[in-house]
Fold this protein.
Amino acid sequence: MKEQLLKIFQDHQGEYISGEKISQELGCSRTAVWKHIEELRKNGYQLDSAPRKGYRMVMRANGIHTHEIKQYLTTKFLGRELTYFDATESTQQIAHKLAQDGAEEGHVVVANEQTKGKGRLGRVWHSRSNTSISMSMILRPPLPPQKTPQLTLLAAVAVVQAIKKNTGLQCEIKWPNDILLKGKKLVGILTEMQADPDLVHSVIIGIGLNVNQTSEDFGEDIAHLATSLHLEKDGASGEPVDRARLIADILLEFEELYEEYLENGFQSIRPLWESYSISVGTYIYARMIKDVIYGYAKGITDDGVLLVEDESGKTHHIYSADIEIDPSK
């Protein structure tokens, strides 16, 4: 009901709409309309009301409640089931539990604030209230376990394309799952799975995205490393980025890539990923737990493995590493 009400206001931007007209379109009483209006006000929407005129939306909230995301959602299955939390420790943990309990493919967990978000290699991902996107998608792909890392690369492409669509900003991908904007980290992607040795039960893809943080939100220790869409879009002087719309676009971009991937394989996605990559075609340090390989990043295989040619001409297959680009080359 709330998403229908928001769509009515969206279709009549700046206009007053009578309570009678709203009640007819929603198929409910005028008392019920008033209750829904009050709930929207509690969610941060500014709504005017005037006798004999009705209601008018003055300012939208920048929330990511279920009804706010679903008003923009155009996917077939991804995000049609949404679980929202105002604050939670980790959307990944919740998605894992939902998947174990039988949640269908496409179920998405979203949080307005995440207090113990996870990054790669056990790192922490901070997500302060009202500024970020923290979400986890549950997938059940008919894939062998060794193919699931490719889904991380799909997610990276989907996020880059959704950001460009919403803000006009062109991001870059650092293998395997970091998204950078003007050299600073903007997005982290974490892919985990529940599987037997030869069978995937579920894949959980977590996405953490810095959206509306200001420079004050980044401490001195990370200010030179991290940024947000709002900072890069207009120096934080203009309107905040609509997080709900951006989530809906990420889900749509990913769903389209996912369906293409399941039908035609990674070879149709690979050129897209490489077109956004800053790792490919440069000299890099690939830092692994027990080794560091320096060389030229030639590209990725159809399995998403990074190919690095060292100075002796030997090509290494890099499955997991922290990548540092050599600025001298």
Summary: Residues 99 and 280 are 35 Å apart (CA to CA). The chain has a mean pLDDT of 89.
